[in-house]
Amino acid sequence: MSEMVTQVPLTAGPAPRRHSVAVQVGKVRVGGDAPIVVQSMTNTDTEDAASTARQVAELARAGSELVRITVNTPAAAAAVPRIAERLAMMGVDVPLVGDFHYNGHQLLEREPACAEALAKYRINPGNVGFGAKRDTQFASIIEMALRYAKPVRIGVNWGSLDQSMLAALMDENAQRAEPWDASRVAREALIRSALESAAKAEEIGLERDRIILSCKVSGVQELIAVYRDLATRCDYALHLGLTEAGMGSKGITASSAALAVLLQEGIGDTIRISLTPEPGASRTGEVIVAQELLQTMGLRSFTPLVTACPGCGRTTSEFFQVLAKTVQEHVREQMPLWRVKYDGVENLTLAVMGCIVNGPGESKHANIGISLPGNGEAPAAPVFIDGEKAMTLRGDNIANEFVGILDDYVERKYTARTS
Predict the structure, then answer these.
(1) Residue closest to 335 by CA, chosen among 139, 102, 129, 61
(2) Left (φ > 0), alpha (ψ -120 to 50) or beta: where does 207 sit?
């Protein structure tokens, strides 16, 4: 007699979002039932108000919903209101987050216009102050947040962990009957630093709906372990990010591997992909990766994404690759206008396929799809619209014709916004 096998039903989709207290950051709501928020950070010298404002605008137009800027010197703090003014003149309305280390208490006190212009303050308990000054300087920043009605992200980082807390936990660990390994002690130090700092902020008077926590590390498995634990021990809104993720494919892979696991488990209210850009490359790459991560997981929709086959021996021509790139770039260029003009266009699906094997089938699943001819196939490219074959393109102008079909579809299919 064969053994009975119990079939466990598999559900498609992430776990329900972890409950968190919602925080209002300027016009953006983080946590609660709000969509997961994408944020980024500039790498300009904040003292240069013009270049910083340009990069903030570039990040915001790419889809960053919060933008963090370094505030490290009196001149940088003085530049913040000028940056905000320049952004307003450019028609860019994005909340600015001030990143403070070491001297944040002094800068906020001396530059009230900076304290007012920022939508949120980010402080690190590991370097807000040292020794006897730590609590006083931490309290000073929290009091400034109260004065100006600003939320605070308490962001603990593996590379700047409070060494006195770590030493105390190591002593405590030595007394255990079964001591933890060093990595677990370090993770506990991160979590306690965040939670104890949040408790101090509340004691000073900052409400729970003004506090966001993060505990960033640079290792994938460590980040997953830290946030799984942190998520069970509080209901603060959580910011996710793998710190110092790296450059190019390494940074994208590491960040996606860590954040995807946590997001699938319902953990995380706002994310940043901390990529090191290639020399001369745009900072907006990290925004696009964050959006694509959320969109491919089915958590949010930002822009139409193009399904394209990887290519094989049937598709030695590069034309389908060029067309896929052309379509994706066209969509990204048009989205700022489409987003304002049409409702729901971010959910549009596209397919650019290279031969007859999977081409027609994948194209039928998309709102608009094209199946290009592979090696030995007739020089014709059928176009499918909402699952039905609509036309066949031929000749040397297929790319422009297909983009025209896409633009016409968007204009016909999506309702124009009235406000």
Answers:
(1) 61
(2) beta
How many degrees, rounded to 5, is the angle at CA 65 between CA 60 and CA 70?
Answer: 75
Which helix (H) or strand (E) covers residue 58, if one does?
A: helix 49-62
Kindly report the pTM of this predicted structure.
0.92
Contact 67, 60 (CB under 8 A): yes
Structure tokens of 167?
A: 């030493």
Instruction: Select the more confidently predicted residue: 246 or 170.
Output: 170
Annotated binding-site residues for [4Fe-4S] cluster read 309, 312, 355, 362
pLDDT tens for each residue of 368-391: 999 999 888 888 999 999 999 999
Q: Alpha helices of 148-219 — where are they, by DSSP H?
A: 163-174, 182-204
Q: How many CA atoms lie within 13 A of 140 on its CB side?
A: 17
Percent of the chain with pLDDT over 90: 83
Q: How many CB atoms lie within 10 A of CB 393?
A: 17
The whole-number pLDDT of residue 1 equals 45
Whether the per-residue pLDDT at 231 is higher than 90: the answer is: yes
Three-state helix/strand/coil letters over 123-147: ECCCCCCCCCHHHHHHHHHHHHHHH
Binding positions are 309, 312, 355, 362
